[in-house]
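Case study 2.
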Amino acid sequence: MRKLTKSISGKIYTGFILVIIILLLVALWSINNFSQLSSAINNIMEENYRSIQSSENMIEAIERQDSSILLVLSGQETEGLTAFRNYEQEFLKWFSRAEDNITISGESQIITELNERYTEFLVKFDEFRELELEERQQFYNEVYSEQFFETKEKIRELRSINQDEMISAQQAADFRAGRAMLSTALISIAGIIIAILSGFYLTKRILAPVEQLQSGIQKVAAKNFKEKLPVNSEDEIGELTEEFNKMIDKLQEYENVNVRKLLVEKEKSEAIVNHISSPLLVTDAENNLILFNQESKDLFDLKDEDLNKHFLEVINNQELFACITGEIECEKNEAGTPVLELEKNNSKNYYKILNKRVYKEIKSDNNKLKFSVTLLEDITRLKEIDQLKSDFISTVSHEFRTPLTSITMALNMLVAEDLGDINSDQEELLQNSLDDCDRLTSLVEDLLDLSKMESGKIELDIRSVKLKKLTQNTIKHFADQAEEKSINLYIDDISEDLTVDVDPNKISWVISNLVGNALRYTGEGDQIKISASQRGNLVYVEVYDTGKGIKKSDLSRIFEKFYRSESNESKTGSGLGLTIAKEIITAHNGRIWVDSEKGSWTKFTFSLPVAKNNNPEIEEIKDE
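Prediction:
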């Protein structure tokens, strides 16, 4: 067995012990010096700082009292007297602290004299108050001011004696600090010199065999597993070399197996990706394209050389890039899925963007993005079918208009007995038919309006209007209905000057629809609140109610055409109101969304553009 001093561990232990002894000596010496220095500093802070602080605060308090007297002289006697008494309490608080902190010779006498001066100061104030108004100014100038300055001077004397004592203590601390720094520096320098000399000696003895291994280890680091390291010593370095050579054999074996697995997995992945019928793009954390399939090549004219290049370098589509990275909110369909419009070979195609981000699981506040997979599902055919459906509904609605009008007129004539008398049963039957015609007519009108909006044919009469006045004129038609149901319907926090550029008739329709829905789903004791606030160039209008609320599963579909919640107790209405409202807000370059908690509350929010400054005038909304 080798002796300890001949092994590397023995050499290292010897060096460590020497360094530890040096560090202990320096540490003990430093602790002793800094303990003395800390004691000196504490003396400075604890013995005198409180008295100086109390003096400063007493000066400020008595100066405030003097200012309070000036308030009394100016005729504000109540305010001045209140302020004087408040600062009197403040002065006495700090005086008590100074009185409890007498630490130096002569300070007790000053405190006693200060107490006498301040007591006289308060007595003079009482005399001042008993004088007539015209006598107060003379009393203040000739008597009171002198008492004020005498008291203030005594406070300064208290502060001065403590400051002098602090300076004296500081000088003593400085002397001790200088002596401690010098002695600590000398001891530290001596320790450093000894440690450096010892380090050079031990390093030379330890690193000699290590340097022989360095070049071989670098080759292994470069994945050159074929060249083993020579064993030139029998110490720990020799043992390490033997174990390292065994590790090289294992690494070589593992590398061979790993490469085969990676090649197989790569071929599988490429086969799967290339058999996906929709364009597929994979980007890394730096937004470089690391994988795409044949469909992506055809759609974006990509080449194999485009791999590992930045997305925007090979695909010049800012909208798609922003959707993938999440920089902006993309245009979405009724189901809430992002939709992208691309033009290829003079024809428009529509793609649903399905994006999945994969993150590295690391122990930090936020996981780091590893890569992002984006699938573009072609929904052009679905768009065309949807357009055909809309065209069909529009055509049918137009065709329904004329016969519905004729039927309604005929029923009205029969109910009015223009064509002969009818009995009560016949009248009830005709009235029910007339109500059904009215509902069908309303549905047809809604369908026609929606068709115009979806086709981009909506006409807006944009004017600058006062939002609060517009809202007031809109909701006053619901006042009787709200009162009948004991519902509190009101406008909250809308500025009189808040002006928006909108089509007042259509925005009034949106507010009416939202308030009408709120009334339908609220009961006795509930409230409906309309509020608005400006943020930047947009105004956000909120319609909030404390009614039944909406299930979370219904929120994403609430703006779909003809959609009704399963829990919807009311079967009236066309189911198009919110869809039309969304189209109107979208036509104003705004957004509308809903938040709700089932059984508690619902809040619809939509945005409108603020009126531009260059509008020549504001359209007045007249009371109806």
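The first strand starts at residue 280 and ends at 284.
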